[in-house]
């Protein structure tokens, strides 16, 4: 029974082991600084997984994904900080607004075959970061703005140790949901579109509808994580939505491995740690990012995780 | 089942298909033959929605379908294979076949992420059916293989299995034997006969005359985009115009 899918427990094993490791991690994290690093890795990994669904699995490139992340963060910051909304309502409203924006862009652009989405999202990202920088009254402009704590009723979320559990849970959920999606009729349709759009369409896959749906899904996920990240940091700046952040997210996907959920986790970990490791080469860390990307593209064009998986004879997750 | 009337398609000034009419009866096996560049694949692309006709009509069970997109035609029971392979190389062989069952499965993203039990159960059945179809086309050895690791001949048959997974009423095969050796061609011939016996209406483009003459009940001959002749294999074989334009030329070349 070569074709039989692995049983639920076997296919879930990596996720369960990973969840257990995340649960045990606080035992060895010495102080708040390390919690902060772990939180940033988890937040980036969650966004990278969502972005990989779009880029790696469906073959559509978003060069402005940080805009969705940033809009989520600013949406929550403004609705809670300026208009006094409850954080949970602001979180949902920001994600819904970003989803609507992505839907409108996707519907207009994804009818066209080719990489028009890359151009449209590049433009969207630039517009979003300029808008955030200029709407000083609402956003504080280039100086950024403070974000109140996240709270539900009387329960308040504060401190690295509490937030760690939120982002760790979010990451595990993202891995499980993405795994479910990839190995499903919808996931196969998305991957088939990447392989041969012509064939997929003649089998009834509505190409523009499926691309739009996965684009909206990955934008909403980015906004959702952005909102929570804003609350966690307590302060947001236009850099969150800017082009370099988009490139960083895309680099995580490419370096970790296209069409690999675990690759995104790995890529996010490496590229979130890189600034810490490269910090001693002050001013040159950007060159470090570039080198990592170039070296990966030359020596591991499929990305780290799929290359390792192939070497050790396992199918890429 | 299918009725094509005065169908034309021009690309710029070139008339790839011009004024072609024919009809296909339910359950029949038809062949479309003609020299390279005669407009055969364009004709298939028009009927399966990959190209829009310049003029003319395509009726499927009486319904006008000219100009509909491919996904709408898939919904109406039309499936096809491709002369130049259109396999998703990033998928496993069996996953390619399962894409064929797309319209019969729950393709909601949210239901997939929530792993709804009835979605999973139906998907498991689709996997079983896809495995059976792969065995049926003689690709049983490639169940868990990545499509990119499969040889050309197996990919040709994989496309047939994928089209069959859509449970089509009308199946278009674009040069199913192209590039295959004699043994493989005989195998594909047997396969087409078996598909016909299962009640699927088949229209095929093929250059292998032995295969065409053996499996088809009716043959349409195209030349320079126009219909040159139509009839049973014996009539077409004896038609002087066909011999001059196509079979004769092929014999001269041999």
Protein described:
The complex is a heterodimer of chains A (317) and B (254). Chain A has a domain at 30-242. Helices cover 72% and strands 3% of the residues of chain A. Chain A is built from 14 helices and four strands. Chain A is globular and about 50 Å long. The mean pLDDT of chain B is 94. Chain B is of the alpha/beta class and 254 residues long. Chain B is globular. Chain A binds chain B through residues 2-3, 5, 177-178, 180-181, 184-189, 191-192, 194-196, 198-207, 210, 213-214, 217, 259, and chain B through 48-50, 69-71, 73-75, 78-80, 82, 86-91, 94-96, 98-103, 105-109, 111-115, 119, 123-124, 126-127, 130-131, 143-144, 147, 159, 162-163, 166.
Strand order of the largest sheet of chain B: 6-7-8-3-9-10
Percent range for β-strand residues of chain B:
15-25%
Largest sheet of chain B: 6 strands, mixed
Structure classification of chain A: mainly alpha
The computed structural class of chain B is alpha/beta
Provide the gyration radius of chain A in Å: 19 Å
This entry's quaternary arrangement is heterodimer
What general outline of chain A do the C-alpha atoms trace? globular
| Fraction in helix of chain B | 40-55%
Strand fraction of chain A:
under 5%
Unreliably modeled segments of chain A:
none
DSSP strand tally of chain B? 10
- Topology, number of strands of chain A: 4
- Distance from N terminus to C terminus of chain B (CA atoms, Å) equals 38 Å
The largest β sheet of chain A comes out as: 2 strands, antiparallel
Helix content of chain A: over 70%
Strand order of the largest sheet of chain A: 1-4
Note the gap between the termini of chain A.
20 Å
Radius of gyration of chain B: 19 Å
Helix count of chain A? 14
Order of helices and strands of chain B: EEEHEEHEHHHHEHEHEEHH
């Amino acid at each position: 029974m070569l074709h039989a899918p692995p049983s639920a427990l076997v296919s879930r094993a990596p996720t369960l082991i990973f969840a257990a490791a995340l649960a045990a991690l606080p035992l060895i994290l010495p102080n708040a600084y390390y919690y902060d690093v772990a939180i940033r890795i988890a937040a980036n990994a969650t966004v990278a997984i969502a972005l990989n669904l779009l880029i790696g699995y469906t073959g559509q490139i978003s060069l402005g994904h940080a805009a969705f992340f940033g809009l989520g963060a600013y949406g929550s910051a403004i609705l809670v900080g300026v208009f006094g909304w409850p954080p949970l309502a602001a979180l949902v409203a920001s994600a819904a607004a970003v989803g609507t924006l992505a839907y409108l862009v996707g519907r207009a652009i994804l009818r066209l075959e080719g990489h028009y989405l890359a151009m449209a999202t590049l433009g969207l990202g630039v517009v979003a970061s300029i808008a955030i920088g200029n709407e000083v009254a609402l956003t504080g402009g280039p100086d950024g703005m403070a974000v109140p704590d996240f709270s539900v009723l009387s329960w308040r979320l504060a401190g690295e140790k509490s937030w760690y559990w939120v982002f760790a849970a979010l990451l595990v959920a993202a891995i499980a949901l993405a795994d479910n999606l990839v190995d499903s009729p919808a996931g196969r349709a998305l991957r088939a579109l990447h392989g041969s759009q012509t064939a997929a369409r003649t089998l009834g896959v509505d190409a523009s509808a499926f691309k739009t749906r996965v684009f909206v899904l990955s934008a909403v996920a980015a906004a959702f994580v952005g909102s929570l990240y804003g609350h966690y940091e307590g302060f947001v700046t236009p850099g969150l939505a800017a082009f370099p952040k988009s490139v960083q997210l895309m680099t995580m996907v490419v370096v970790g491995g296209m069409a690999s959920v675990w690759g995104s986790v790995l890529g996010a970990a490496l590229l979130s740690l890189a600034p810490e490791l490269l910090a001693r080469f002050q001013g040159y860390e950007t060159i470090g990012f570039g080198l990592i990307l170039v070296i990966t593209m030359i020596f591991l064009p499929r990305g780290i995780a799929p290359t390792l998986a192939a070497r050790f004879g396992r199918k890429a997750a | 089942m299918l009725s094509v009337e005065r169908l034309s398609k021009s690309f710029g000034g070139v008339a790839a298909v011009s004024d072609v009419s024919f009809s296909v009866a339910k359950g029949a096996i038809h062949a479309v033959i003609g020299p390279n560049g005669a407009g055969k694949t364009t004709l298939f692309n028009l009927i399966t929605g990959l190209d829009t006709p310049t003029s003319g009509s395509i009726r499927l069970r009486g319904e006008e379908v000219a100009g509909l997109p491919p996904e709408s035609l898939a919904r109406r029971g039309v499936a096809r294979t491709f002369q130049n392979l259109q396999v998703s190389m990033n998928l496993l062989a069996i996953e390619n076949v399962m894409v064929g069952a797309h319209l019969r499965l729950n393709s909601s993203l949210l239901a997939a992420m929530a792993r709804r039990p009835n979605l999973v159960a139906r998907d498991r059945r689709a996997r079983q059916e896809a495995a059976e179809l792969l065995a049926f086309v003689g690709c049983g050895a490639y169940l868990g293989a990545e499509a990119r690791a499969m040889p050309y001949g197996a990919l040709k048959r994989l496309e047939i299995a994928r089209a069959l997974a859509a449970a089509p009423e009308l199946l278009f095969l674009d040069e199913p034997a192209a590039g295959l050796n004699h043994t493989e061609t005989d195998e594909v011939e047997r396969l087409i006969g078996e598909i016909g016996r299962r009640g699927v209406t088949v229209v095929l483009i093929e250059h292998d005359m032995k295969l065409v003459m053996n499996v088809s009940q009716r043959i349409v001959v195209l030349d320079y985009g126009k219909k040159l002749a139509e009839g049973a294999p014996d009539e077409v074989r004896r038609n002087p115009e066909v011999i001059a334009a196509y079979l004769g030329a092929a014999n001269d070349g041999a």
